[in-house]
Amino acid sequence: MTAETSQTLDRGLRVLKLLADTDHGLTVTELSHKLGVNRTVVYRLLATLEQHALVRRDLGGRARVGLGVLRLGRQVHPLVREAAMPALRSLAEDIGATAHLTLVDGAEALAVAVVEPSWTDYHVAYRAGFRHPLDRGAAGRAILAARQKTPGDPGYTLTHGELETGACGAAAPLVGVTGVEGSVGVVMLADVVPERVGTRVVEAAREVAEALR
Predict the structure, then answer these.
(1) How far is CA 152 from CA 87, 139, 156, 160, 199, in A?
(2) Cα dist. 30→22, 39, 180 in Å?
(3) What is the pTM (predicted TM-score) of this model?
(4) Mean pLDDT of 182-204
(5) CA 90 to CA 62: how far, in whole Å?
(6) Which residues, listed in sequence order, are joined to residue 115 by a DSSP beta bridge?
(7) How many CB atoms lie within 10 A of CB 56?
(8) Three-class SS of residue 157?
(9) Beta bridge partners of residue 183, listed in sequence order
(10) pLDDT tens across 93-143, in order?
(11) What is the tens place of the pLDDT at every residue in 46-94?
């Protein structure tokens, strides 16, 4: 540190870097140890960063990078969508259902990219910008399942009628994308999700994750 630099700003930026380097978030105690400062300082840093949506804390108190980081650069969201589009387009055409990339925004799931199939007679209308609670719908549930990493988890989540009557969904979480929580999935009008759809959304999620690294 020099006389021309801000210690508080430096610590805040270090918090963001530490959070960006973990997929599971960090507690106040863990951040305190890593920064070499007391918990009160960490609480103040997190509170300030939360006000700007640069950090969010889950129900368990773990801090994670917030989507405000993406909003700092206007071109980031378009770049994320652009990176995901080839995999989403392939998924939609292959399955014949609306495909989407969904990211965590606080306690909600936010659809940031949507591709509809070109060859079907009908499909579920699902638009970028659509929000729903994380604990409802395949997209959000897949993200929550990834946080828990339960043994025997098939790697994808199936739901029926949670967001729209008669519609079912399948989604798989993005894995290995530092600082970003999200999922890739499809939503379709069907009584049951065909067996191959689950493995197909896992494959698409892996493709999107690779494109975002």
Answers:
(1) 26, 19, 11, 21, 14
(2) 12, 9, 20
(3) 0.69
(4) 93
(5) 35
(6) 99
(7) 22
(8) strand
(9) 102, 173
(10) 999 999 999 998 888 999 999 999 999 988 888 888 899 999 999 999 999
(11) 999 999 999 999 888 899 998 887 666 555 567 788 899 999 999 999 9
Q: How far apart are CA 100 and CA 81, in angstroms?
A: 10
Contact 175/209 with Cβ under 8 angstroms? yes
Both ends of the chain: CA-CA distance in Å?
31
Name the residue with higher pLDDT: 205 or 121: 205
Nearby residues of 59 by Cβ (< 8 Å), 6 or more positions away: none
Which runs of consecutive H residues, i.e. helices, occur in the chain? Answer: 7-20, 28-35, 39-51, 68-71, 76-95, 138-148, 195-212
Return the closest-CA partner of residue 142 out of 131, 130, 153: 153
Query: Which is nearest to 132 in space by CA: 116, 145, 143?
Result: 143
Q: Are 110 and 104 in contact (CB under 8 A)?
A: yes
Q: At what angle do helices 39-51 and 28-35 cross, to 10 degrees?
A: 110
- Residues 6+ away with beta carbon under 8 Å from 204: 87, 88, 90, 91, 99, 172, 184
20 burial via Cβ count (<10 Å: 0-12, 13-18, 19+): middle
The two three-digit tokens of residue 178, written as one number: 């530092």
Give dist(CA 124, CA 195) in Å, integer. 19
Query: pLDDT exceeding 90 applies to what percent of the chain?
Result: 63
CA quadruple 38, 30, 102, 82: dihedral positive or negative? Answer: positive
